[in-house]
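cache lookup: miss for this entity combination. No prior model stored, computing from scratch. Input as submitted by user K.M.:
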Amino acid sequence: MNVRLYLAQRLTAAVMVPLVAVHLAVIVYATRHGLSAADVLARTRGSIAWALFYGIFVLAAAIHAPIGLRTILTEWSPLRGRSVDAVATGVGLLLLATGLRAVAAVVLP
Amino acid sequence: MSNVRSQLTVSLWRGGEDGRYQSYQVPLRENQTVLDVVTWVQRNLEPSLAYRFACRVGMCGSCAMTVNGRPRWTCRTQVSRVADGGRLQIGPLENLPVIKDLAADMRPFFEKWQQAKGAFAPSKTRADPIETIRPDSPARRAADAAIECINCGVCYAACDVVRWNEDYLGPAALNRAWTLVNDVRDTANVRRLEAVAASGGCHACHSHQSCQEHCPLSLNPTAAIAGLKRRTALAFLKGEIEA
């Protein structure tokens, strides 16, 4: 971990704190009000606000998680240097691709 | 029959990295330190026993060893305080290569101290007048809080991150860097901040605080490292250092 990765991890954590809170509140709201999948999709499809909300969430998570994973791999696996960076980058891209695909599935009209 | 113990069972590490613990019986004395025990074994039972000490009064930092699983200064550790049921296990400091028996190789420790730019870089020559430093200035207070380190290696041996990440500079080197970062007379702070902001530097610390817990001088390297994290992050954002 260097200062660049440290700042990226802290900043994305700061971004995700309110996003996680809203995400949890949305889950509680949806379950308490018995919203079906169709009800949820009716609210999210075509919504620029939800696209931005979960788009930023996915982007922040895709940066934050691989940095932590990189540290864990450095400390707990035989991988070093470029191999660690490659695995962490791969996981980040996977999170980004699957996350954005999920966002697209619920917000695209 | 008396319950008073007269002998101590002492296990000492013998050999190099692939050595093993060997048991000895040592007479128990009043006010005996762990270093006294090691010295008794060397003088009476094992003349070839290798260990390191100099001052015997907690000033030189050369006698640190692992005593019943914890890194300690052996000269300032009373046997009565640490002997578990009349037993002592003494090994070389952890997280360092073993030279022989109880002597650890301190080279990686001091090499990292140098990597962290632990040497003072003066801004004046001896021909210049002595610079006046206010002892109550915030920077000097921060430097003073960390400056008493005598490089015994106890924090380095206690640190989990040193154990897991061979590139990590360790608490003592970073603590030293923090004293110099706060020394207004020093001129090498850009290089120093770049050195501690790189991979294996201050940002690798998980703040487990083992260094603070084990430091025989009650210094707080974790706080010094936290200071370096803030200072390097700020310097990076301002474009003062490259990473």
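stored under new cache key. The CA atoms of residues 35 and 167 of chain B lie 31 Å apart.
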